[in-house]
User: Which sequence fits this backbone?
């Protein structure tokens, strides 16, 4: 261990669970500056650029433009004087953890309208299994959580943002409990903490293996109970309205009648989630079509980091869509990955073995799949015992059973699946986008928390904390004046078959912009996507979603083409090394302008103090006494 940091660490630990012992190598986060990582994969990583060298001006990138048919300001024509119009103080779009939290907090200071395109609970949030990270354990600290996040983020995290989020975690999680979310607790009433990949110790609060559903259902009930939140379900945000360079509301289409109305607001909070549907194989539900990112793009907000898409290594390889996720917490409890010879391959790849960061595990799985000529590898949880598995992982047990597998007796076929959009609408530490009046929280935002790779279970936390911060910023800010009449005309009709467009773009993205990328594949993908841009169908929500998918896909594929290095979730076969000299920077886009590289300015040293407990229970209890 280098870096001159103080290190207090117990002897090699064991993860909790029935006998699944595993050497916990000195964590990469514990007392280690990123310059001297203990990760086998990170070992090739050069040190962070010293602060004096990192204050570089933005750099232009080669000329790149979206196909003209996608490069429009509005998707539909309208006249706000000739259509139903409503006003509110705060307009929140999206009903996952970010949107619900924003609405509940904003309702304390303002009247709120919450719009969601499907049912209230139809979100990525509902699907989350593993839990929410927070440095609440006895042996944990904000510094450790910060360090783990920074190491996994591979030089692109914003340390101020990371610090803000991990510091606020304990308070935000306590507030979730106050809303009624039940996290698992031990016999003494201490909160149970699970360990997931990239975390140096158990840190993930969970509600069995259905944490997302518990959070979603609890916050949804609170929103339904609130008299200050007007809830509009089955309403599709088509576009953001802007006047004089400020976001002043949104155009919303009813999913049934296709009638469009204008919702005017002093502030708009986008919480529209990710874009997993740009891939054929994804863990994301059908609502994850990147609408918020595309609408913000059309409205002129900055979009960043779109090349970074996290693949989850262990989705159940079945015919189902979306793919059923098998939480990392199962590997945290001791489940193994086996190749076609039933040989455990991860210990040879990384000292953290099955708990290495997700990009490392996903790439290793892909290599094994390629070597074995199979569409999957095996996940082996049999040694954990039927009783433990059913108690700790009821959702996984049931999901596997539905697909015909007995988790306690069978090897489970798993493969990587697109899981999390790291990039999105660029925001500051208070969730402010570059477009005045527009805020973004959760998976649709690029806040600088995740850098080039997301630390497991930091995303629910991001949505939770950023929404709170946005509302605090709104409470401080002045009230803008109300907009006047707004109109737009849109020329031409689109025609084409959005279903065909969707399936072709998903196939191209899964083939060329997935775990491993190359210049040739990316160029082929860009060509395919450009060819699809003129045939995305009519103006109903499905076709509009397809246009949004194309915008997200093209931004992701083109950014991946531009970034000629490998870092975090972005791995280029033709540029396999990390290149801090040229690429320790965010690729930033704004409609109508050339993309540019914004260098990361950070002097985070990585020095920290660390204790790695031997067992899950050693991590508590410090937070939230017995109930
Ligand atoms: C299977 C799975 C497991 C996961 N497990 C974990 C985990 O254990 N821990 C963790 O931290 N993260 C996990 N994640 C990631 C995490 O769930 C998401 O990143 C997070 O829930 C995103 O929350 P959000 O509020 O930003 O968006 P979402 O929860 O996806 O909500 C987006 C909302 O926006 C609405 N919307 C979208 N477009 C429009 C539009 N045009 N008009 C109106 N409404 C719109 C949607 O209908 C939805 O209500 C998991 C994700 C998946 C898919």
Assistant:
């Amino acid at each position: 261990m280098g870096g001159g940091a103080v290190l207090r660490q117990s002897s090699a630990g064991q993860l909790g669970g029935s006998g699944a012992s595993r050497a916990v190598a000195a964590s990469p986060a514990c007392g280690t500056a990123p310059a001297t990582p203990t990760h086998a994969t990170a070992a090739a990583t050069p040190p962070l650029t010293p602060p004096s060298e990192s204050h570089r001006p933005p750099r232009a990138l080669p000329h790149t433009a979206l196909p003209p048919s996608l490069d429009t300001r509005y998707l539909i024509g309208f006249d706000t004087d000739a259509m139903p119009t409503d006003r509110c103080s705060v307009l929140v779009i999206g009903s996952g953890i970010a949107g619900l939290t924003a609405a509940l907090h904003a309702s304390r200071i303002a009247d709120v309208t919450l719009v969601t395109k499907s049912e209230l609970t139809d979100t990525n949030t509902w699907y989350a299994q593993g839990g929410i990270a927070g440095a609440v354990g006895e042996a944990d600290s904000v510094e450790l959580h910060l360090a783990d996040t920074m190491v996994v983020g591979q030089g692109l995290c914003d340390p101020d943002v990371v610090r803000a989020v991990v510091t606020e975690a304990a308070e935000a999680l306590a507030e979730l409990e106050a809303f009624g979310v039940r996290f698992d607790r031990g016999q003494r009433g201490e909160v149970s903490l699970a360990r997931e990949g990239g975390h140096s110790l158990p840190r993930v609060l969970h509600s069995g293996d259905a944490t997302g559903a518990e959070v979603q259902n609890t916050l949804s009930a609170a929103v339904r109970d609130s008299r200050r939140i007007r809830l509009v379900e089955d309403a599709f945000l088509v576009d953001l309205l802007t006047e004089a360079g400020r976001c002043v509301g949104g155009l919303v289409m009813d999913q049934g009648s296709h009638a469009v109305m204008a919702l005017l607001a002093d502030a708009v909070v986008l919480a529209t989630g990710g874009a997993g549907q740009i891939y054929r194989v994804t863990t994301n539900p059908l609502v994850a079509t990147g609408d918020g990112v595309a609408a913000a793009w059309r409205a002129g907000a900055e979009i960043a980091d779109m090349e970074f898409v996290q693949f989850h290594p262990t989705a159940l390889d079945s015919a189902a869509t979306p793919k059923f996720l098998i939480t990392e917490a199962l590997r945290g409890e001791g489940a193994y990955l086996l190749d076609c010879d039933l040989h455990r391959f991860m210990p040879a790849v990384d000292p953290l073995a099955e708990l290495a960061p997700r990009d490392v595990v996903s790439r290793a799985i892909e290599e094994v799949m390629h070597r074995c000529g199979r569409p999957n590898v095996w996940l082996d949880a049999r040694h954990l015992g039927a009783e433990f598995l059913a108690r700790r992982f009821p959702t996984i047990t049931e999901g596997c059973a539905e697909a015909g597998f007995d988790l306690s007796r069978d090897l489970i076929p798993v493969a990587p699946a697109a899981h999390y959009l790291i990039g999105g609408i660029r925001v500051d530490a208070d969730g402010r986008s570059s477009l005045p009046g527009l805020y973004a929280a959760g998976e649709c935002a690029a806040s600088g928390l995740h850098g080039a790779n997301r630390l497991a279970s930091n995303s629910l936390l991001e949505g939770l904390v950023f929404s709170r911060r946005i509302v605090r910023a709104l409470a401080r800010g002045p009230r803008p004046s109300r907009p006047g009449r707004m109109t737009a005309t849109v020329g031409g009709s689109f025609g084409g078959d959005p279903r065909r467009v969707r399936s072709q773009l998903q196939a191209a993205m899964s083939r060329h912009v997935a775990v491993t990328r190359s210049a040739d594949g990316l160029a082929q993908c860009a060509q395919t996507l450009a060819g699809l841009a003129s045939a995305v169908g009519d103006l109903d929500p499905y076709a509009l979603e397809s246009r949004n998918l194309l915008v997200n896909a093209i931004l992701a594929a083109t950014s991946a083409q531009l970034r000629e290095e490998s870092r975090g979730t972005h791995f280029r076969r033709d540029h396999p090394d990390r290149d801090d000299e040229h690429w320790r920077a965010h690729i930033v886009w704004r409609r109508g302008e050339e993309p540019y590289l914004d260098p990361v300015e950070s002097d985070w040293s990585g020095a920290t103090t660390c204790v790695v407990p031997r067992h899950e229970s050693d991590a508590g209890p410090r937070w939230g006494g017995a109930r």
